[in-house]
Design a protein that fits this description.
about 500 residues; mainly alpha
Length: about 500
Protein backbone atom coordinates (compact mmCIF):
# COMPACT_ATOMS: atom_id res chain seq x y z
CA UNK A 1 0.00 0.00 0.00
CA UNK A 2 1.32 3.44 -0.94
CA UNK A 3 1.87 6.08 1.70
CA UNK A 4 0.01 9.32 1.07
CA UNK A 5 1.06 11.12 4.25
CA UNK A 6 -1.03 14.11 5.24
CA UNK A 7 -3.16 13.72 2.11
CA UNK A 8 -4.61 10.52 3.60
CA UNK A 9 -6.63 12.47 6.18
CA UNK A 10 -7.75 15.20 3.77
CA UNK A 11 -10.77 13.45 2.13
CA UNK A 12 -12.55 12.29 5.31
CA UNK A 13 -11.95 15.65 6.99
CA UNK A 14 -13.32 17.51 3.94
CA UNK A 15 -16.38 15.21 3.89
CA UNK A 16 -17.05 15.79 7.59
CA UNK A 17 -16.65 19.58 7.36
CA UNK A 18 -18.89 19.73 4.27
CA UNK A 19 -21.53 17.58 5.96
CA UNK A 20 -21.58 19.77 9.07
CA UNK A 21 -21.52 23.06 7.14
CA UNK A 22 -23.99 22.27 4.35
CA UNK A 23 -26.13 19.51 5.93
CA UNK A 24 -25.91 17.77 2.53
CA UNK A 25 -24.52 14.48 3.80
CA UNK A 26 -24.85 12.60 0.49
CA UNK A 27 -22.97 15.26 -1.49
CA UNK A 28 -20.32 15.59 1.23
CA UNK A 29 -19.66 11.84 1.27
CA UNK A 30 -19.63 11.59 -2.53
CA UNK A 31 -17.12 14.43 -2.72
CA UNK A 32 -14.96 12.77 -0.06
CA UNK A 33 -15.03 9.47 -1.97
CA UNK A 34 -14.24 11.21 -5.26
CA UNK A 35 -11.29 13.25 -3.94
CA UNK A 36 -9.91 10.11 -2.24
CA UNK A 37 -9.69 8.25 -5.52
CA UNK A 38 -8.38 11.30 -7.38
CA UNK A 39 -5.49 11.42 -4.87
CA UNK A 40 -4.90 7.66 -5.20
CA UNK A 41 -4.77 8.07 -9.01
CA UNK A 42 -2.10 10.80 -8.84
CA UNK A 43 -4.57 13.66 -9.29
CA UNK A 44 -5.84 12.34 -12.60
CA UNK A 45 -9.45 13.51 -12.50
CA UNK A 46 -10.67 11.17 -15.24
CA UNK A 47 -9.24 7.92 -13.89
CA UNK A 48 -9.98 9.10 -10.33
CA UNK A 49 -13.65 9.58 -11.20
CA UNK A 50 -13.87 6.12 -12.78
CA UNK A 51 -12.09 4.63 -9.76
CA UNK A 52 -14.57 6.36 -7.42
CA UNK A 53 -17.47 4.75 -9.32
CA UNK A 54 -15.76 1.36 -9.07
CA UNK A 55 -15.17 2.04 -5.37
CA UNK A 56 -18.92 2.35 -4.87
CA UNK A 57 -19.49 -0.88 -6.78
CA UNK A 58 -16.79 -2.68 -4.78
CA UNK A 59 -18.62 -2.01 -1.52
CA UNK A 60 -20.81 -4.96 -2.46
CA UNK A 61 -17.76 -7.24 -2.75
CA UNK A 62 -17.87 -7.36 1.04
CA UNK A 63 -20.62 -9.74 2.13
CA UNK A 64 -20.79 -7.93 5.49
CA UNK A 65 -21.39 -4.57 3.82
CA UNK A 66 -24.07 -6.03 1.55
CA UNK A 67 -25.88 -7.66 4.46
CA UNK A 68 -25.86 -4.41 6.44
CA UNK A 69 -27.26 -2.44 3.49
CA UNK A 70 -29.96 -5.09 2.97
CA UNK A 71 -30.79 -4.94 6.68
CA UNK A 72 -31.13 -1.15 6.47
CA UNK A 73 -33.63 -1.44 3.59
CA UNK A 74 -35.64 -4.36 5.02
CA UNK A 75 -36.18 -2.48 8.27
CA UNK A 76 -38.53 -0.23 6.28
CA UNK A 77 -40.81 -3.18 5.49
CA UNK A 78 -40.96 -4.22 9.14
CA UNK A 79 -41.71 -0.67 10.34
CA UNK A 80 -44.51 -0.24 7.81
CA UNK A 81 -46.03 -3.59 8.79
CA UNK A 82 -46.24 -2.74 12.50
CA UNK A 83 -47.55 0.75 11.70
CA UNK A 84 -50.31 -0.60 9.43
CA UNK A 85 -51.33 -3.31 11.95
CA UNK A 86 -51.98 -0.69 14.67
CA UNK A 87 -49.23 -2.29 16.73
CA UNK A 88 -47.64 1.12 17.32
CA UNK A 89 -50.98 2.56 18.41
CA UNK A 90 -51.53 -0.36 20.79
CA UNK A 91 -48.09 0.08 22.37
CA UNK A 92 -48.70 3.82 22.79
CA UNK A 93 -52.00 3.06 24.53
CA UNK A 94 -50.15 0.86 27.04
CA UNK A 95 -47.55 3.54 27.70
CA UNK A 96 -50.30 6.15 28.05
CA UNK A 97 -51.61 4.27 31.07
CA UNK A 98 -48.12 4.33 32.57
CA UNK A 99 -47.84 8.04 31.84
CA UNK A 100 -51.20 8.78 33.44
CA UNK A 101 -50.09 6.89 36.57
CA UNK A 102 -46.91 8.92 36.99
CA UNK A 103 -48.60 12.20 36.08
CA UNK A 104 -50.93 11.71 39.05
CA UNK A 105 -47.88 11.49 41.31
CA UNK A 106 -46.07 14.53 39.92
CA UNK A 107 -46.63 16.70 36.85
CA UNK A 108 -43.93 16.24 34.20
CA UNK A 109 -42.58 13.09 35.85
CA UNK A 110 -43.76 10.90 32.97
CA UNK A 111 -41.24 12.54 30.61
CA UNK A 112 -38.42 11.42 32.87
CA UNK A 113 -39.80 7.89 33.22
CA UNK A 114 -40.25 7.37 29.47
CA UNK A 115 -36.74 8.64 28.68
CA UNK A 116 -35.27 6.36 31.34
CA UNK A 117 -37.20 3.42 29.90
CA UNK A 118 -35.75 4.20 26.47
CA UNK A 119 -32.23 4.36 27.90
CA UNK A 120 -32.52 1.07 29.81
CA UNK A 121 -34.04 -0.62 26.74
CA UNK A 122 -30.99 0.44 24.74
CA UNK A 123 -28.63 -0.94 27.41
CA UNK A 124 -30.49 -4.25 27.74
CA UNK A 125 -30.23 -4.82 23.99
CA UNK A 126 -26.42 -4.86 24.15
CA UNK A 127 -26.31 -7.88 21.87
CA UNK A 128 -26.08 -5.66 18.75
CA UNK A 129 -25.97 -1.87 18.29
CA UNK A 130 -28.17 -1.77 15.18
CA UNK A 131 -30.91 -3.79 16.91
CA UNK A 132 -30.59 -1.61 20.03
CA UNK A 133 -30.85 1.74 18.20
CA UNK A 134 -33.59 0.50 15.91
CA UNK A 135 -35.73 -0.91 18.72
CA UNK A 136 -35.38 2.15 20.96
CA UNK A 137 -36.25 4.53 18.12
CA UNK A 138 -39.18 2.46 16.88
CA UNK A 139 -40.71 1.70 20.28
CA UNK A 140 -40.40 5.11 21.85
CA UNK A 141 -40.74 7.57 18.93
CA UNK A 142 -44.57 7.75 19.09
CA UNK A 143 -44.61 8.33 22.85
CA UNK A 144 -41.76 10.86 22.69
CA UNK A 145 -43.77 12.72 20.04
CA UNK A 146 -46.86 12.66 22.25
CA UNK A 147 -44.92 14.06 25.22
CA UNK A 148 -43.31 16.74 23.01
CA UNK A 149 -39.77 15.47 23.48
CA UNK A 150 -37.60 16.48 20.49
CA UNK A 151 -36.53 13.82 18.04
CA UNK A 152 -32.91 14.84 18.62
CA UNK A 153 -33.22 13.73 22.26
CA UNK A 154 -34.49 10.28 21.24
CA UNK A 155 -31.64 9.89 18.73
CA UNK A 156 -29.15 10.89 21.45
CA UNK A 157 -30.55 8.36 23.91
CA UNK A 158 -30.61 5.60 21.27
CA UNK A 159 -27.05 6.32 20.09
CA UNK A 160 -25.46 6.83 23.51
CA UNK A 161 -26.95 3.71 25.06
CA UNK A 162 -26.26 1.27 22.23
CA UNK A 163 -22.53 1.15 21.36
CA UNK A 164 -21.38 1.98 24.93
CA UNK A 165 -23.39 -0.93 26.36
CA UNK A 166 -22.20 -3.28 23.59
CA UNK A 167 -18.55 -2.52 24.39
CA UNK A 168 -19.04 -2.72 28.18
CA UNK A 169 -21.03 -5.98 28.07
CA UNK A 170 -19.02 -7.73 25.36
CA UNK A 171 -20.95 -11.03 25.19
CA UNK A 172 -21.77 -10.33 21.57
CA UNK A 173 -20.17 -9.94 18.15
CA UNK A 174 -18.25 -6.90 19.45
CA UNK A 175 -16.56 -9.04 22.09
CA UNK A 176 -15.74 -11.73 19.54
CA UNK A 177 -14.20 -9.19 17.19
CA UNK A 178 -12.07 -7.62 19.93
CA UNK A 179 -10.88 -11.04 21.17
CA UNK A 180 -9.91 -11.93 17.61
CA UNK A 181 -7.84 -8.75 17.32
CA UNK A 182 -6.13 -9.48 20.64
CA UNK A 183 -5.34 -13.03 19.54
CA UNK A 184 -3.63 -11.77 16.39
CA UNK A 185 -1.38 -9.66 18.64
CA UNK A 186 -0.23 -12.76 20.50
CA UNK A 187 -2.34 -12.24 23.64
CA UNK A 188 -2.71 -15.67 25.30
CA UNK A 189 -5.85 -14.82 27.32
CA UNK A 190 -7.77 -12.34 25.18
CA UNK A 191 -11.04 -12.74 27.11
CA UNK A 192 -9.35 -12.01 30.44
CA UNK A 193 -7.58 -8.94 29.04
CA UNK A 194 -10.79 -7.66 27.47
CA UNK A 195 -12.73 -8.05 30.73
CA UNK A 196 -9.97 -6.43 32.82
CA UNK A 197 -9.89 -3.46 30.42
CA UNK A 198 -13.57 -2.70 31.06
CA UNK A 199 -12.79 -0.98 34.38
CA UNK A 200 -10.63 1.55 32.51
CA UNK A 201 -12.99 2.08 29.58
CA UNK A 202 -14.12 5.45 30.87
CA UNK A 203 -15.82 7.01 27.84
CA UNK A 204 -18.63 4.43 27.40
CA UNK A 205 -19.26 4.52 31.16
CA UNK A 206 -19.41 8.33 31.11
CA UNK A 207 -21.62 8.36 28.00
CA UNK A 208 -24.27 6.21 29.69
CA UNK A 209 -23.94 8.09 32.99
CA UNK A 210 -24.34 11.41 31.19
CA UNK A 211 -27.55 10.25 29.48
CA UNK A 212 -28.92 9.24 32.89
CA UNK A 213 -27.99 12.57 34.50
CA UNK A 214 -29.39 14.63 31.60
CA UNK A 215 -32.71 12.79 31.85
CA UNK A 216 -33.06 12.85 35.65
CA UNK A 217 -31.89 16.42 36.26
CA UNK A 218 -33.41 17.82 33.02
CA UNK A 219 -30.22 19.76 32.30
CA UNK A 220 -29.62 20.12 28.58
CA UNK A 221 -26.80 22.13 27.03
CA UNK A 222 -25.98 23.70 23.66
CA UNK A 223 -28.08 22.71 20.63
CA UNK A 224 -30.04 20.15 22.68
CA UNK A 225 -31.24 22.90 25.04
CA UNK A 226 -32.41 24.87 22.00
CA UNK A 227 -34.19 21.79 20.64
CA UNK A 228 -35.96 21.26 23.97
CA UNK A 229 -36.97 24.95 24.07
CA UNK A 230 -38.25 24.77 20.47
CA UNK A 231 -40.41 21.73 21.17
CA UNK A 232 -41.67 23.09 24.48
CA UNK A 233 -42.66 26.50 23.05
CA UNK A 234 -43.79 25.61 19.52
CA UNK A 235 -44.50 21.87 19.68
CA UNK A 236 -42.17 21.31 16.71
CA UNK A 237 -40.36 17.98 17.03
CA UNK A 238 -37.81 18.97 14.37
CA UNK A 239 -36.19 22.15 13.07
CA UNK A 240 -37.98 23.90 10.21
CA UNK A 241 -35.25 22.94 7.72
CA UNK A 242 -34.75 19.44 9.10
CA UNK A 243 -34.66 16.42 6.82
CA UNK A 244 -35.60 13.36 8.92
CA UNK A 245 -33.72 10.15 8.11
CA UNK A 246 -37.03 8.28 8.18
CA UNK A 247 -39.77 9.64 5.95
CA UNK A 248 -43.22 10.54 7.24
CA UNK A 249 -44.57 7.80 4.97
CA UNK A 250 -43.14 5.30 7.47
CA UNK A 251 -43.59 7.17 10.76
CA UNK A 252 -47.13 8.40 10.03
CA UNK A 253 -48.38 5.70 7.68
CA UNK A 254 -52.14 5.31 7.97
CA UNK A 255 -53.14 2.21 9.93
CA UNK A 256 -55.75 -0.23 8.69
CA UNK A 257 -59.25 0.90 9.58
CA UNK A 258 -61.74 -1.22 11.47
CA UNK A 259 -59.26 -3.24 13.52
CA UNK A 260 -58.43 -3.08 17.22
CA UNK A 261 -55.09 -1.60 18.28
CA UNK A 262 -53.04 -4.32 19.97
CA UNK A 263 -49.58 -3.75 21.46
CA UNK A 264 -48.43 -7.29 20.71
CA UNK A 265 -48.71 -6.61 16.97
CA UNK A 266 -45.66 -4.41 17.50
CA UNK A 267 -43.96 -6.15 20.40
CA UNK A 268 -43.99 -9.70 18.94
CA UNK A 269 -42.13 -8.86 15.68
CA UNK A 270 -39.60 -6.62 17.46
CA UNK A 271 -39.10 -9.16 20.27
CA UNK A 272 -38.56 -11.82 17.59
CA UNK A 273 -35.86 -9.70 15.99
CA UNK A 274 -34.10 -9.15 19.31
CA UNK A 275 -34.48 -12.81 20.40
CA UNK A 276 -33.12 -14.15 17.10
CA UNK A 277 -29.94 -12.09 17.30
CA UNK A 278 -28.02 -14.28 19.81
CA UNK A 279 -29.47 -17.43 18.21
CA UNK A 280 -28.17 -16.33 14.82
CA UNK A 281 -24.79 -15.43 16.32
CA UNK A 282 -24.55 -18.93 17.78
CA UNK A 283 -25.66 -20.51 14.49
CA UNK A 284 -23.22 -18.57 12.29
CA UNK A 285 -20.32 -19.19 14.66
CA UNK A 286 -21.08 -22.83 15.59
CA UNK A 287 -18.67 -24.56 13.18
CA UNK A 288 -15.81 -22.21 14.08
CA UNK A 289 -15.66 -23.46 17.69
CA UNK A 290 -12.83 -25.76 18.70
CA UNK A 291 -12.13 -27.55 22.00
CA UNK A 292 -15.45 -26.75 23.70
CA UNK A 293 -15.68 -28.49 27.08
CA UNK A 294 -19.49 -28.51 27.27
CA UNK A 295 -22.59 -27.59 25.31
CA UNK A 296 -22.93 -24.25 27.15
CA UNK A 297 -19.26 -23.52 26.49
CA UNK A 298 -19.79 -24.34 22.81
CA UNK A 299 -22.78 -21.97 22.65
CA UNK A 300 -20.86 -19.15 24.36
CA UNK A 301 -17.86 -19.56 22.06
CA UNK A 302 -20.14 -19.82 19.01
CA UNK A 303 -21.80 -16.50 19.87
CA UNK A 304 -18.32 -15.04 20.16
CA UNK A 305 -17.41 -16.33 16.68
CA UNK A 306 -20.71 -15.41 15.03
CA UNK A 307 -21.24 -12.97 12.16
CA UNK A 308 -22.89 -9.76 13.31
CA UNK A 309 -23.98 -8.70 9.82
CA UNK A 310 -25.48 -12.11 9.03
CA UNK A 311 -27.23 -12.20 12.38
CA UNK A 312 -28.97 -8.82 12.05
CA UNK A 313 -30.06 -9.65 8.50
CA UNK A 314 -31.47 -13.06 9.49
CA UNK A 315 -33.10 -11.47 12.55
CA UNK A 316 -34.99 -8.81 10.60
CA UNK A 317 -36.06 -11.34 7.94
CA UNK A 318 -37.39 -13.66 10.66
CA UNK A 319 -39.24 -10.74 12.27
CA UNK A 320 -40.86 -9.85 8.93
CA UNK A 321 -42.00 -13.46 8.40
CA UNK A 322 -43.40 -13.66 11.95
CA UNK A 323 -45.23 -10.36 11.39
CA UNK A 324 -46.71 -11.61 8.12
CA UNK A 325 -47.96 -14.83 9.73
CA UNK A 326 -49.30 -12.94 12.77
CA UNK A 327 -51.19 -10.37 10.72
CA UNK A 328 -52.46 -12.93 8.19
CA UNK A 329 -53.84 -15.05 11.04
CA UNK A 330 -55.75 -12.04 12.37
CA UNK A 331 -57.08 -11.15 8.93
CA UNK A 332 -55.31 -7.76 9.01
CA UNK A 333 -53.48 -8.27 5.72
CA UNK A 334 -53.71 -10.45 2.66
CA UNK A 335 -50.63 -11.70 0.83
CA UNK A 336 -50.92 -9.08 -1.91
CA UNK A 337 -51.12 -6.29 0.68
CA UNK A 338 -48.04 -7.65 2.45
CA UNK A 339 -46.00 -7.67 -0.76
CA UNK A 340 -47.09 -4.12 -1.65
CA UNK A 341 -46.43 -2.80 1.87
CA UNK A 342 -43.08 -4.58 2.04
CA UNK A 343 -41.90 -3.06 -1.24
CA UNK A 344 -43.15 0.37 -0.18
CA UNK A 345 -41.33 0.12 3.15
CA UNK A 346 -38.10 -0.92 1.42
CA UNK A 347 -38.38 1.97 -1.04
CA UNK A 348 -38.89 4.47 1.78
CA UNK A 349 -35.59 3.41 3.36
CA UNK A 350 -33.57 3.53 0.16
CA UNK A 351 -32.04 6.89 1.25
CA UNK A 352 -30.71 5.17 4.38
CA UNK A 353 -29.32 2.26 2.34
CA UNK A 354 -27.64 4.78 0.02
CA UNK A 355 -26.11 6.58 2.98
CA UNK A 356 -24.77 3.30 4.34
CA UNK A 357 -23.28 2.56 0.90
CA UNK A 358 -21.50 5.94 0.87
CA UNK A 359 -20.27 5.51 4.46
CA UNK A 360 -18.78 2.11 3.59
CA UNK A 361 -17.26 3.47 0.37
CA UNK A 362 -15.43 6.32 2.10
CA UNK A 363 -14.23 3.85 4.73
CA UNK A 364 -12.77 1.66 1.98
CA UNK A 365 -11.14 4.71 0.39
CA UNK A 366 -9.55 5.59 3.75
CA UNK A 367 -8.08 2.08 3.90
CA UNK A 368 -6.57 2.57 0.43
CA UNK A 369 -5.14 5.93 1.51
CA UNK A 370 -3.78 4.47 4.75
CA UNK A 371 -5.54 7.10 6.89
CA UNK A 372 -5.51 5.07 10.10
CA UNK A 373 -1.87 3.87 9.99
CA UNK A 374 -0.68 7.38 9.06
CA UNK A 375 -2.40 8.97 12.06
CA UNK A 376 -1.20 6.23 14.40
CA UNK A 377 2.41 6.14 13.18
CA UNK A 378 2.62 9.92 13.26
CA UNK A 379 2.59 9.79 17.06
CA UNK A 380 5.47 7.34 17.53
CA UNK A 381 8.29 9.87 17.32
CA UNK A 382 7.14 12.27 20.03
CA UNK A 383 5.06 10.14 22.38
CA UNK A 384 5.92 10.20 26.10
CA UNK A 385 5.13 6.94 28.02
CA UNK A 386 3.09 8.71 30.73
CA UNK A 387 0.83 10.21 28.06
CA UNK A 388 0.47 6.94 26.13
CA UNK A 389 -3.11 6.01 27.21
CA UNK A 390 -4.41 9.56 26.63
CA UNK A 391 -2.71 9.84 23.23
CA UNK A 392 -3.93 6.39 22.17
CA UNK A 393 -7.47 7.50 23.10
CA UNK A 394 -7.15 10.75 21.11
CA UNK A 395 -5.67 9.04 18.04
CA UNK A 396 -8.31 6.29 18.11
CA UNK A 397 -10.96 9.01 18.38
CA UNK A 398 -9.59 10.83 15.36
CA UNK A 399 -9.36 7.66 13.28
CA UNK A 400 -12.98 6.74 14.15
CA UNK A 401 -14.13 10.31 13.50
CA UNK A 402 -12.40 10.38 10.11
CA UNK A 403 -13.46 6.91 8.96
CA UNK A 404 -16.89 6.67 10.63
CA UNK A 405 -16.28 3.16 11.96
CA UNK A 406 -15.39 2.01 15.45
CA UNK A 407 -14.69 -1.57 14.32
CA UNK A 408 -12.30 -0.36 11.63
CA UNK A 409 -10.58 1.80 14.24
CA UNK A 410 -10.18 -1.17 16.58
CA UNK A 411 -8.59 -3.18 13.76
CA UNK A 412 -6.16 -0.37 12.87
CA UNK A 413 -5.26 0.77 16.36
CA UNK A 414 -5.00 -2.53 18.23
CA UNK A 415 -2.09 -3.58 16.01
CA UNK A 416 -0.28 -0.36 16.94
CA UNK A 417 -1.39 0.24 20.54
CA UNK A 418 -0.40 -3.16 21.98
CA UNK A 419 3.19 -3.14 20.64
CA UNK A 420 3.54 0.48 21.83
CA UNK A 421 2.27 -0.51 25.29
CA UNK A 422 4.83 -3.31 25.45
CA UNK A 423 7.67 -1.02 24.34
CA UNK A 424 6.77 1.69 26.89
CA UNK A 425 5.93 -0.76 29.70
CA UNK A 426 2.33 0.44 29.96
CA UNK A 427 -0.43 -1.77 31.48
CA UNK A 428 -2.20 -3.59 28.63
CA UNK A 429 -5.72 -3.30 30.14
CA UNK A 430 -5.35 0.49 30.29
CA UNK A 431 -4.11 0.82 26.70
CA UNK A 432 -6.72 -1.60 25.32
CA UNK A 433 -9.45 0.37 27.11
CA UNK A 434 -8.14 3.65 25.67
CA UNK A 435 -8.19 2.13 22.17
CA UNK A 436 -11.76 0.84 22.51
CA UNK A 437 -13.11 3.96 24.21
CA UNK A 438 -11.52 6.22 21.60
CA UNK A 439 -13.24 4.26 18.84
CA UNK A 440 -16.64 4.75 20.48
CA UNK A 441 -16.02 8.46 21.18
CA UNK A 442 -14.90 9.24 17.62
CA UNK A 443 -17.84 7.25 16.28
CA UNK A 444 -20.27 9.31 18.40
CA UNK A 445 -18.85 12.56 17.03
CA UNK A 446 -18.71 11.55 13.36
CA UNK A 447 -21.51 12.35 10.87
CA UNK A 448 -20.36 9.45 8.68
CA UNK A 449 -20.74 6.85 11.44
CA UNK A 450 -23.03 3.93 10.51
CA UNK A 451 -24.30 3.53 14.10
CA UNK A 452 -25.17 7.24 14.32
CA UNK A 453 -26.90 7.03 10.95
CA UNK A 454 -29.08 4.14 12.18
CA UNK A 455 -29.89 6.08 15.39
CA UNK A 456 -31.03 9.06 13.31
CA UNK A 457 -33.08 6.79 11.08
CA UNK A 458 -34.79 4.91 13.91
CA UNK A 459 -35.65 8.18 15.66
CA UNK A 460 -36.76 9.91 12.42
CA UNK A 461 -34.37 12.74 13.24
CA UNK A 462 -32.34 14.98 10.97
CA UNK A 463 -28.92 13.31 10.97
CA UNK A 464 -26.79 16.44 11.23
CA UNK A 465 -29.07 17.83 13.95
CA UNK A 466 -28.53 14.56 15.85
CA UNK A 467 -24.74 14.88 15.57
CA UNK A 468 -24.79 18.56 16.57
CA UNK A 469 -27.00 18.00 19.63
CA UNK A 470 -25.04 14.92 20.77
CA UNK A 471 -21.61 16.49 20.23
CA UNK A 472 -21.41 18.66 23.41
CA UNK A 473 -22.20 15.68 25.64
CA UNK A 474 -19.71 13.49 23.78
CA UNK A 475 -17.00 16.16 24.03
CA UNK A 476 -17.52 16.53 27.79
CA UNK A 477 -17.21 12.76 28.22
CA UNK A 478 -14.16 12.66 25.94
CA UNK A 479 -12.41 15.51 27.79
CA UNK A 480 -12.97 13.90 31.19
CA UNK A 481 -11.68 10.61 29.78
CA UNK A 482 -8.47 12.23 28.51
CA UNK A 483 -7.84 13.80 31.94
CA UNK A 484 -8.38 10.45 33.66
CA UNK A 485 -5.96 8.70 31.28
CA UNK A 486 -3.31 11.38 31.86
CA UNK A 487 -3.64 10.94 35.64
CA UNK A 488 -3.48 7.13 35.40
CA UNK A 489 -0.58 7.39 32.96
CA UNK A 490 1.54 9.18 35.56
CA UNK A 491 0.43 6.83 38.33
CA UNK A 492 0.73 3.47 36.53
CA UNK A 493 3.54 3.94 34.03
Amino acid sequence: MDTYGFLSILPPVIAIVLALRTKQVYIALLFGIWISWVIINDWNFFTGTLAAIEGLVNVFKSAGNTRTIMFSALVGALLLFIQYSKGVEGFVNVLNKLIAYFEKKQSGYSRVVVQLLAMFTGILLFVETSISSLTVGTLYRPIFDKLKIPREKLAYIADSSSAPSSILIPFNAWGAFIMGLLLTQGIENPFGLMISSMAYNFYPILAILMVFLVIVFKKDIGPMAKAEKRTRETGKLLNDNAKPMLSSEVTSFESKKGIKAKAYNMIVPLATMVFMMPINLAFTGWDAVENAVSFSDHVFKAIGNGSGSSSVLYAVLTAIIVAMVLYRAQGIMKTKEMVELGLKGISELMPLALLMLLAFAIGDACIELGTGPFVANWSKEWLSPAFLPAIIFVISSFVAFSTGTSWGTFAIMMAIAIPMAEIHGAPLPLVVAATLGGGIFGDHCSPISDTSIISSMASASDHIDHINTQLPYALIGGLITVVLYVILGFIMI
